[in-house]
Design a protein that fits this description.
The protein is an alpha+beta fold. It has 3 domains: about 60 residues, Helix Hairpins; about 160 residues, Exo-inulinase, domain 1 (Jelly Rolls, Sandwich), CATH 2.60.120; about 160 residues, Jelly Rolls (Sandwich), CATH 2.60.120. It is built from 7 helices and 28 strands. A 7-stranded antiparallel sheet has the order 1-4-13-6-7-8-9, with no helix packed on it. A 7-stranded antiparallel sheet has the order 2-3-14-5-10-11-12, with no helix packed on it. The protein has a 7-stranded antiparallel sheet with strand order 15-18-27-20-21-22-23, with no helix packed on it. A hairpin with a 2-residue loop joins strand 11 and strand 12. Helix 2 packs antiparallel against helix 3. The chain is elongated. About 20% of the residues have low confidence.
């Protein structure tokens, strides 16, 4: 491998990248491997020093061998031998006596000075006093030096600075920013440079007005002064300037929610505009920043149908534009895909919203969104005692579909780990984590059954058992319900069967 190829690899840029791209990558590496960040870990100090040496060498090599600029031609200095012909050989001059050099050299010098002064004054007098026939015809008689008016120079006009870049950006007909919807605790305000988003929580964001299926491309122009920047889709999250490690790009898969990291690819410069692009196809996804690919992976995203969104955490975010390239899912398509079996005993219309639950109208069913209070739910008005069975048909747009009974709680697509099923016991509230049993498809209908008897309980999704135990619940008693958390939940049936 040649030195030039090593330079591209060390700096993490494509071969043949521009000087600006190389400088940007070099600064990010220096920031990421600054010794002050590893002062608490002596073991890594040596590695940090080596990384910095490599980065410095690669940057200096490219500056010296690739981006070096030739000196301009007008700055080339010529020697006397290049411009003056070689003098002719003449007979040697007489060497002056000891008394001659001082007098002759001084006399010649002052004679030259006097000659120059006389020539300049004479030329000036001739120019202003001696008339020229051509000048008289064109401009009239010349003025003498005494007649030339003396004018003061005009002060320079004040320089008006150019308007900020945001003010000169032309309107973008593809920009859907004005139609996007704030979710959870996100708040927005308009400014001259775009929309200012305040999103203090984990999943506070602006989402698109309609869900979309892959393939699609989300394109956004953003500026952040502090905190991270986040893109959302289904269970997926892309995190830039991650507070735990700003240098690492943090990516959660849209289908599984599993996380992966891309070292050296997560930093966005504060106070500068960036274009973020997230492409999701049926079998792959790609993250691009300012035209540079930061992350790529493969997956099966055919069945996904969710709302792309953009948000932040631990700091405000300014958004100039958001474009969504693809075919959003329409209401008509949703209704056509939704089966409509009868649900005898559906209690949904008689259930009561509690804990600041927001109930929204939706053609598909009853849509639930959480407010500021904990444990928002749609509650069944009568207390239940085992044995009974709760049958629910519902879907979540992203995370946290929750079922409640007495002190018990069942969480699907748990926000902290979507793959884990979280089961809280109805009698003791003791938590049982079940790895790989809690994931459900975002924005897809699911049939969920929770059966509680005096000898134990069982939880199943779409006919497959996710959890069961053997325990005496004969003394359990309480209210049942269903609710969201940091998500939008749609329910079209809630049936209670008393066994």
């Amino acid at each position: 491998m040649g030195d030039l190829d090593r330079c591209w690899i060390i700096l993490g840029v494509e071969p043949g990248s521009s000087r600006e791209t190389v400088k940007w990558a070099y600064r990010n590496l220096v920031k990421a491997w600054h010794p002050d960040q590893f002062s608490h870990d002596p073991v890594q100090q040596h590695e940090v020093q080596e990384r910095l040496k490599e980065a410095n060498w690669a940057y200096d090599y490219l500056e010296t061998h690739v981006f070096i600029e030739a000196a301009p031609a007008e700055n080339h200095e010529t020697t006397a031998s290049e411009t003056e012909p070689e003098p002719e050989k003449t007979a040697p001059e007489r060497t002056p006596s000891a008394s001659e050099p001082v007098a002759s050299e001084r006399g010649g010098f002052w004679q030259a000075i006097v000659f120059v002064i006389v020539a300049v004054l004479g030329g000036t007098l001739v120019y202003y006093v001696w008339p020229s026939s051509k000048d008289s015809d064109r401009y009239g008689p010349r003025k003498t030096m005494a007649e030339v008016p003396i004018t003061k120079p005009r002060p320079a006009a004040p320089v008006t600075p150019p308007p900020p870049a945001a003010a000169t950006v032309p309107a973008n007909p593809k920009n859907i920013l004005a139609r996007m919807i704030p979710a959870n605790s996100a708040t927005v305000s308009s400014g001259a440079d775009g929309v200012h988003l305040d999103a203090p929580g984990t999943r506070d964001y602006l989402r698109t007005p309609q869900p979309i299926r892959p393939p699609f491309t989300l394109r956004a122009q953003v500026l952040t002064d502090a905190g991270d920047v986040r893109l959302y889709y289904a269970l997926g999250i892309v995190v830039f300037n991650w507070t735990a490690n700003a240098d690492e790009l943090r990516v959660h898969d849209p289908l599984t929610g599993l996380s992966a990291g891309a070292p050296g690819q997560g930093s966005l410069s504060h106070g500068e505009w960036h274009e973020l692009v997230w492409r999701v196809t049926t079998n792959a996804m790609q993250v691009v920043v300012d035209g540079q690919i930061r992350y790529e992976s493969v997956g099966n995203y055919t069945r996904l149908d969710a709302y792309p969104a953009i948000g932040s955490r631990d700091g405000p975010l300014t958004i100039r534009s958001v474009e969504l390239e693809g075919q959003p899912t329409t209401t008509g398509e949703l209704l056509a895909l939704k089966p409509t079996p009868p649900f005898p005993g559906n209690l949904l219309a008689s259930m009561v919203p509690v804990n600041d639950l927001r109930v929204l109208n939706d053609p598909e069913g009853m849509t639930l969104a959480s407010g500021t209070a904990p444990a928002p739910m749609l509650k069944y008005a009568e207390p239940l005692r085992p044995p009974f069975t709760i049958r629910v048909r519902a879907k979540t747009d992203s995370v946290d579909l929750r079922l409640y009974y007495a002190q018990g709680l069942v969480i699907f697509n748990w926000q902290d780990n979507p793959g884990e099923l979280r089961v809280h016991d109805p009698l003791t509230n003791q938590i049982t984590p079940l790895p790989s049993m809690g994931r459900i498809l975002a924005n897809d209908w699911h049939y969920i059954v929770w059966e509680v008897t005096e000898a134990g309980m069982k939880i199943s999704v779409d006919g497959a058992i996710r959890y069961q135990n053997r325990k005496n619940y004969g003394k359990a008693e309480g209210f049942a319900g269903i609710g969201p958390h940091l998500s939008k939940l749609t329910v079209d049936s809630f049936v209670v069967e008393r066994n």
